[in-house]
From TrEMBL:
Protein name, entry field: Phage protein
């Protein structure tokens, strides 16, 4: 695998996790586990020397949605 292939693999996995989290949120449920998994993927990427704006955006968007749930009193 080339460097780009590995980075793309991280992005693909993050997209699958993100999409599942969005399904939960659209259904009115929090996606706290999704938030943790996405931040873990981002941390692993950093440890491997990769940086992805896509993965960072997925993390931020899920966190924002979960923060709204937290503001409504829904806790982890």
């Amino acid at each position: 695998m080339t460097i780009m292939d590995k980075e793309q693999a991280f992005e693909i996995v993050a997209k699958v996790v993100f999409d599942r989290g969005i399904q939960l949120i659209v259904g009115g449920n929090p996606a706290f586990e999704t938030e943790r998994v996405l931040f873990h993927i981002e941390m692993c990427m950093t440890e491997w020397g990769y940086r992805s704006a896509k993965v960072s955006e997925y993390c931020d968007l899920i966190k924002q949605e979960n923060d709204l749930m937290r503001e409504m009193g829904i806790e982890e």
